[in-house]
Amino acid sequence: MHDWTDIEHPSQQEIEAWSAIPGVRFDFAHGRVTKAHLHRSAWIPAGVAIAEASASRRLSVTFGASSMLRNYQLADLPFLLNRRSSILGYEMRLGKTATATVAHRPSDGPLLVIGPLIARDVWRTWIERVHGFSPVCLESKTDVALPGFPAYFCHFDILDSHSAFLQTLRPATLIIDEIHMLQARRSLRMSTCSLIAQHADRIIGLSGTPMWSNPRSMWPILNLLAPGAWGTEFDFCQRYMRSARGAWGWMYNGTQNAEEFKQRLSEVIVRRTWKDVAPSLPPTVNVVEPVAVTNRDRNQLEMAAEKARLASENVNSRTSQVAHLATLRKRYGMLKVERAAELADRAIRDGHKVVLWTWHVEVAETLVEEMRKQNLYIFTMRAEDSQDYRANQIKTFQEHPGQACILVPLAVGGVAIDLSSADVNIFVELDWIPATNYQASMRVFSPARPHSNVFLFADVPVERRLMEVLGVNEACQSAMELGYEEIASRVLDSAQPFTHGA
């Protein structure tokens, strides 16, 4: 039997035979079918003898899904089921995807998931695990969406191209992953999501990113979930933001009536933090390790840091503090490569699977070379790789039977991927955004065992200060509210006392 995944240039006879079978979609170019796809699924209607699947089997999968959830997830299910719209505000790796998937009832109608493309394979895995069928994934603007399937996934970037079809779909459950990405109310993705949401029986938004500290950014999302219930944006901001008339209109700065706003949000959002559920989860070990630097390198780096600080204070300079610090950080990253390779080698020999996190391309390439010098095979992901290639690398790494190592750039792998077959993170570099570092640290989380995070830093004042400002000792959570410029300013300000011998 054909696998029917990516069949190039199918014949007319094949097209006619396959078109009646759910799970098949076709790509078109110049009026002709260029490729046929079969999204393998356990959901096969009666009368189509392709797989031994039945309604009774699907029902048992659905009822048995509760065994996949932890106690706090089971406790939160009624919150989702008893509301037409809600937000599941779990922190990273606490089980948002699993909880939302179990909350869907296939007997009520189709499931539609909208989210970033990088989350596609995670949703495909969980929907298949919970309900026994795979979603049809709309992956390009030219995909032809066909009705009649139990689940669909569409990513934000092509949502407008499939808006008409998704509105007619009338999903029983609409899940919007990373719903905080809809905070721009005038964006195309927000307007399209709003149109689709009007036709959904239930809406579940997911977000691991704290966004409720700024009420104004919340209004578009709250209005999508319950149009009109929160009033107009102007009335909402007048109620919950400190407002004042400016030369060009109303200006908002800070919150007011915070307790009332928090109380109203509790009717919409169920929030779980890592600290809330820590007693029921395996421990996480965070290790912050300095990497020794030679006196020659130390002097050169401290002189460069001082020059960067002075240059950043020059009002005529076109280079920002962020740019100066980024240049320094790449040099620091290169100094940590050898130690990172040593730690990865040791962890692999001790029976662990390892994830290495980097930021700069040059640092990543040097690290790969260093690992190969030690005869260690390393899986790699790069920003320029396609989503399918990255997914294949992750899948191969996850299924690798023995010890292995994968190198992941923070820019592309910090969110929405599953690396839980590994139990050791080694951070060679850090992202500017503490939340990204924290999310990356949780990619290896598994409820079945502990995991470790090793944060390396070059033992020089600026790098040490960067680790402090980003709050590495607290798993990168203490600097959540700081912007790029403020982080860079705090770090470079530390250069002066150290370089002058204070």
Description:
With 502 residues, the protein is α/β, with parallel strands linked by helices. The chain folds into two domains: 71-278, Tandem AAA-ATPase domain (Rossmann fold, 3-Layer(aba) Sandwich); 282-499, P-loop containing nucleotide triphosphate hydrolases (Rossmann fold). It contains 20 helices and 18 strands. The strands form four sheets. Strands 6-7-5-8-9-4-12 form a seven-stranded parallel β-sheet. The protein has a six-stranded parallel β-sheet with strand order 13-18-17-14-16-15, sandwiched between helices. A three-stranded antiparallel β-sheet has the order 1-3-2, with no helix packed on it. A hairpin with a 2-residue loop joins strand 10 and strand 11. Helix 3 crosses helix 4 (96-103), helix 4 (96-103) crosses helix 5 and helix 13 runs parallel beside helix 14 (361-373). The longest helix is centred in the last third of the chain and has 29 residues, at 321-349. The chain is globular and about 65 Å long.
